[in-house]
Amino acid sequence: MTKRVLLAEDEPNIVESLTFLLERAGYQVSVQTDGRKALDAALSEPPDLLILDVMLPELSGYEVLRHLRTDRRGETLPVVMLTAKGQRADRETAMDCGADLFITKPFANSDIISAVEGLIDGRNG
Amino acid sequence: MQHSILGARIRQRRRELAVTQAELARRIGISPSYLNLIEWNKRRIAGRLLQRTAQALQLPLDDLEGADERPLYDTLTGLAHQPVMRKLGVEGERTNELIGRFPGWARALGELSRTERQANERAQRLSERLANDPHLSETVHRMLTRITAVRSTTEILTEYADLPEERRTRFNRIVHEEIRTLSDVGEALAAYLDRTDDAEPVLTPLDEVGSLFADRGNRFVEIDEAAQPLNAMLGDPRPVSRRQTARQLVQDSLEGLIDSLIANQPQIRTAAARGRARRALLDYAVAAVLMPVDEFAPRAAQSRYDIEVLAEDFTVEVETVCRRLAALPPADDVPRFGYFRANAAGTIIEMLGLEGLAVPRYTTGCPLWVLFRAQQSPEAVIRQRVLFPSGERFVFAARARHTGPSGFGRPRHYITDMIVTNEADARHTVYDPDPSATVEEVGPGCRLCPRETCLHRVEDPLAE
Predict the structure, then answer these.
(1) Nearest chain A Cα to B459, which residue?
(2) What's the confidence (pLDDT) of residue A29?
(3) Is A108's CB within 8 Å of B171's CB?
(4) Any bridge partners for residue B214, and if so which?
(5) How far is CA B49 from CA B25, B41, B107, B307, B323, in A?
(6) Chain B residues with CB inside 8 Å of A20's CB?
(7) In this prediction, what percent of chain B has a pLDDT beyond 90?
(8) What is the residue extent of each domain of chain A?
(9) B39-78 in b/e burial notation, b at 16+ Cβ within 10 A?
């Protein structure tokens, strides 16, 4: 069965390239461009994995993740966080909030795909 | 005067005049062996003997005492204190000899140390800013986002040979669009850095007002002069009424002056800063009416700059006295003061800086400053003698006071006022520490502080 990835990212061009890549890799992709909608979507119809940008309108990626981790439906959802900062403090915050992986922009496409595959396969393996 | 320079000065001058130790000893009426002890700083010399020595060496007393060399001595001693200098085995205890025997080299070293300190302070300000300036952080984020889109899209264009033509055109357009945006962001960033590439970068309204006060040495002569005659109109000796009258007088007579002063300041660029500057200068003017400089300066000197005595004398709050001290006209025998105010959260909410004292503008300060522990003993002035990593020594005097309404069961909120002066200037004040008083090694705040082994460090330094 095709695995579903929810992409929470507000930059349309990054959304376009990541959607293309993930679809090519065989995933079904849905997109949300603000934190509030991403949280609602992740809870109402939990995907197999969430790619979550830190800087999102309405609710930041950290806030989305904190809410997710306190809800039974999002407690164990694999989450890859994207940030453009890459400072140690941001990595620590992402991990404290419960991110499974942390990828710093600018990333290589292979970083994203291998992270997604690693987490989803790990979950199913 | 530090005794240690004196011996070297006597020896150096005697040699310049080609006078033997025995001859000079005879002229000043002591034994050659005693003079030898004086020249090697083994015995103190003062009073009439010192005067006779100055006379015999044909020097004014001040010259012999090396009053002019005091700042150089302090600078070089500070330099010798730095950990890196200790590692090099710098003979800090022989600074006096260096000054006495090689005054040119000593001055050159002092000058180098001063410029190095300035460069360090500037680098610290910039690195602090790079980490904390919200505009820069936002811009860097935007650039990295654009770069991400370009990188991801070009990788797709390169790696997927089977892309449909329509998709290929679309991705090419994205790359083109992102590169154009990236170039705009880069240009805006360059312009921003260019605009603020000066010694005192201006960012927030608070910074703008801070720059105005710093550039003016915390002092506005035109307001002082205009406020002086208003003091006679205060009348009523009750403090609250005097303060209200002073505020009214300022509003009636000095608002125009203050508005035109702000309008002409290049540091004040935004409407928010104009509002803040206006409030700060109105407060300055009220203080100038309550404590006109002609009356305040001599009284301050007489009380040896005791902030509590002055507050009582002028029936004003300690904070008003502190601000007035920071605005004293400069003179040789008048200490230069800085002023800090902090709340219980440890945030510095007001700062009238002092040259040479590095203070973080956007991050928390050093927890070792008495400014942050004075609230453990409210209503009492606590003095602290401090040594900064740069080798600069200062004396801090802090006092926490209760603010807001009082009453049983009400929460108590404290604010701390702190004056700061360099140690050399502190000798004119009641806060002059005894030479044996503990010197506490403090810093400007962890991010700017190079003390690697400090037990109170909570984060790594930015500039290593």
Answers:
(1) A89
(2) 95
(3) no
(4) none
(5) 11, 15, 29, 38, 43
(6) 156, 167
(7) 27
(8) 4-124
(9) bebeeebeeeebeebbebbebeeeebbbeebeebbbbbbb
Query: Is A107 in contact with B148 (Cβ distance < 8 A)?
Result: yes
Mean pLDDT of chain A: 87
pLDDT for B4 equals 59
Which chain A residue lies closest to B154 (C-alpha atoms)?
A17
- Residue A73 gets which letter from DSSP? T
> Does the beta carbon of B174 lie under 8 angstroms from any beta carbon of chain A?
yes
Cross-strand partners of B396? B384, B420
- The Cα-based distances of B65 to A2, B7, B12, B62, B152 in angstroms read 89, 9, 12, 5, 72
B160 — contact with chain A (CB < 8 Å)?
Answer: yes
Q: What are the tens digits of pLDDT across the range B212-250?
A: 888 888 889 899 999 988 888 887 776 777 888 999 999
Q: Looking at residue B321, what is its pLDDT?
A: 95
Complex ipTM more than 0.90, yes or no: no
Average pLDDT over residues A23-37: 93
Which residue is closest to A113 within chain B, CA to CA?
A: B152
Count residue pairs from A and B with Cβ separation < 8 A.
57
Q: Which residues of chain B register pLDDT less than 50?
A: 1-3, 199-200, 202, 463-464
Give the C-alpha separation, B307 to B325, whole Å: 9
Q: How close B144 comes to chain A (CA, Å)? A: 6
Domains of chain B, each with CATH number or no CATH: 3-115 (1.10.260.40), 134-195 (1.10.287), 334-464 (no CATH)
Site of tokens 């991801």? B152
| Interface touch A106/B160, C-beta < 8 Å | no
Can you tell me the distance from the alpha carbon of B209 to that of B348, in angstroms, rounded to the nearest whole number? 15
Residue B427 DSSP label? T
Taking CB atoms and an 8 Å limit, are B147 and A105 in contact across chains?
Answer: yes
Residue of B nearest to A11 (CA): B145
Query: How many angstroms separate the CA atoms of B304 and B337, rounded?
Result: 13
- The CATH number for A4-124, chosen from 3.40.630.30, 3.40.50.300, 3.30.390.30, 3.40.50.2300, is 3.40.50.2300
Query: How far apart (Å, rounded) are the C-alpha atoms in residues B251 and A70?
Result: 56
CA–CA distance from B238 to each of A25, B246, B249 (Å)? 81, 12, 16
**Closest Cα partner for A52 from A114, A101, A119?**
A101
- Taking the C-alpha atoms of residue B277 and residue B134, their distance in angstroms, rounded to an integer, is 22
Distance from A106 to chain B by nearest Cα, in Å?
A: 4
